[in-house]
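Researcher: Going back to the complex we discussed earlier. I've cleaned up the inputs and rechecked each line, so this should be the final set. Can you rerun the prediction on the complete assembly and write out the structure?
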Amino acid sequence: SQELEQSPQSLIVQEGKNLTINCTSSKTLYGLYWYKQKYGEGLIFLMMLQKGGEEKSHEKITAKLDEKKQQSSLHITASQPSHAGIYLCGADMEYGNKLVFGAGTILRVKS
Amino acid sequence: DAGVIQSPRHEVTEMGQEVTLRCKPISGHNSLFWYRQTMMRGLELLIYFNNNVPIDDSGMPEDRFSAKMPNASFSTLKIQPSEPRDSAVYFCASSWDRLPLMNGYTFGSGTRLTVV
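Model: Rerun complete. Updated structure for the full complex:
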């Protein structure tokens, strides 16, 4: 969706390095969702952010939502090959039980 | 729970043929969504149902596409006639009807459609 811009489009990192993926909207987000997808498989829900300034962590993955609720970042600490995949942000932009998604960020981790 | 179940996992068909994709949502979920994923356009919402009623079909690309949800445990997405540009991975997802969606949608494994 052009309503949600993800950057970078792709990323190659050395195992053990940290990385950040961004998701930006021109509209206020009522909910921001991060998903991970492995090639040929469905999307796996990681976490959801709702409040401005909110931060959540799951294992070595941390996601934040800015105060204006228009930008989110996903940060992976000490990346591992298991982190490789496509990361997608999805957002509820109309408070109406419908998610639109960004184009995704392809992450490759070199061991 | 077995999760959202889609069938078939792979479908190869010839241009002009009818294709039917199937989805069984998680028991108790009352919202169901059909998405299409391509390299060029990413993940696009085609249509979604709430309590078996189509709510928003603005993402359905053409009249060749139709979707039904005859009951709470089954939905179909039909393409007739199919064209090569319909080749994509089609995902079905379901959720509780709560705002906001605290746990997001649960996605199926997808159907990879190839139209030759």
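Model: Worth noting: Chain A touches chain B at residues 1, 30-31, 33, 35, 40-45, 48, 50, 88, 90, 92, 95-104 (CB under 8 Å).
Researcher: Good, that matches what I expected from the previous run.
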